[in-house]
Amino acid sequence: MAGSSYVDKALYTTTNTFGILRKELIESLGLEYAKFFLQRYGWNIGITHAKEVDYLPLTLTEKLNSAVGYHLASGQITDLLSERVLHLNPDDTVKYMYAKGIWVNSYEVEEHLKHFSQSDSCICHTLAGYSSGYTSYLTKKEVYIVEMTCRAKGDEHCAFEMRMLEHWDPETQADLKKISQTRMIDDLNKTYMELFEEKKHTEKVSTFHNNLTLGISQGMHIDQILETIYNTLNIPAIVQDLSFNTHHSIGMTQEQLEFIKEDFIQQMPQTKSGKILIQPIDPMQPSQVDCPNHTRLISPIIVQKQIIGYISFIYFSKDTNYKEEMHYLQRSAVSISLCYLNEKSSLEATENIKAYFFEQLLQQQYTSKKSMISRSYLLQIDLNEDFYIGNLGVSKKGIPVHEASTISKIIQSVIVYLEMHQTSIFITEFQDEIVFLFPKKDDTEDIYQNILKHLQRKFRNYDFRIGLSRVINDIDDIAEAHRQAISSLNINKRDTIVYFENTNILGSLINHQNSDIIVKLAQRELDPILSLKPNKRDEFLKTLYTFLNHNGNLNLTMVDLNLSMSGLVYRIQKIEELLDRNLRSSKNLFELILLIESLIVLGEIEIE
């Protein structure tokens, strides 16, 4: 309207009303945004009042002192205790300014404690903002008040300090500039855009994960999963075992795979044996490894709470937002884990069928050889071809291990190892032993050696040996071949891999037709010793066995057993009395050593 002028009207409100507004701001915006909003609110009021005071014919000092009256008149505080240092230039401009003081009975403290519990930080934001805006406008300098202690957080006073901007530390300066230079709408817009981008990213990651999960539910294999990952992200990826041997890859040539392998090995610390050392990886925060010529993000593949390998994204360019890529890697690792779990479940079901089939062969529980051979084709082993029956001996500190849970873990480890090397085997727990059927191949010896090395690495507290039967190609001979495998380990206790055909003549003389007769004969002749209490029995058996192996030589036996001559002579005499045999007779020596060796070969006794 023509001739009209704007009049700034004073608007009065109660501290209770302001307290409700303050409560809504904190609950809606959070403490951090509410803090800057209240500081800017106080800043703008301070500038408005400073403009009014600036028209008055007062000195700068008098104008600055006028702020106290507003504080008290508006009820913001009941008193102000302060000290100020003000140095002016000749033209009445500010050269240096510093102040400190105490706000007595701050209304903001009362309202905050009314609506919230005790604070962790100072909360007199409008008071600090008002004084900062008021002083800055009048001095034409950026001057800011910072509350140092506050009754809302349990301090004795609401104490503040006032300094020119350049006299605050850099971190405080950055926060203070937000009061005068940043609009809340700008912050809200920035936050909105960040949330919008995060929402888009989250939706993309979720869609990516759903596509992978759908693929797994439809029976995708690991190579197909990697292909889906690469087609979606265009990022080369590799799946490796615990020794960082690559089993699956996408997006790289064989030359590139060899290149990044060497690049990675040179970057990572290694043991003396060449094993790569890597810090434990958090599945929720995969690791980033910066190699000289490439970068890789690594996440563990976890199946049933055990790390079985790693999936890595490979980057040849450094210009990448790895933070976002981490989300995709995590979901890829989960998908690969599910894929392995599916394969593991399928493999376990197949192996259970194989184990049951093999137990039928061992116990000769079949009526048709032709039917069994035909079924073996379906299980990827041709029983018309040559094969071995083997016995996997497990011991701990020289004592045989027959614990079911340990045996089961060892069998599973062998199955998984051979599956990775695409090698078929029948293996099961039979009569507390690990028994297997393995086709004869050109590299059979190497395969056995690698199995033992694998088991030794995985089960460091145990020792492993393999006993093998003669080569057979008739399933009717499996039961006898099983006895040969056991006998080979009992005859030769030195080698880790023992072939029955390489054992001594004793092994050849014992077969399933005469083994029961030999056991009964040996037990009858040695019964006076075998029926003793365990400690005494083992002591006499070892003494007799050692004496017989040294062809009755007392001196060699004494050294081997670490006995005195008198002690050894006493034991020999006692054994002769028990057995009613003269141990000086070569005939008796031969018969007794044959009987003891037979019991050892047949697994009836053990002599350490």
UniProtKB/TrEMBL annotation:
Lineage, broadest ranks: Bacteria, Bacillati, Bacillota, Bacilli, Bacillales
Name of the protein: Polyketide synthase regulator
Domain 4-vinyl reductase 4VR: 102-164
InterPro entries listed in its UniProt record: CdaR-like_regulators (IPR051448), CdaR_GGDEF (IPR041522), NO_sig/Golgi_transp_ligand-bd (IPR024096), PucR_C-HTH_dom (IPR025736), PucR_C-HTH_sf (IPR042070), V4R (IPR004096), XylR_N (IPR010523)
SUPFAM superfamilies: Ligand-binding domain in the NO signalling and Golgi transport (SSF111126)
SMART domains given in the database record: V4R
Family listed: Belongs to the CdaR family.
Taxonomic source organism: Solibacillus kalamii
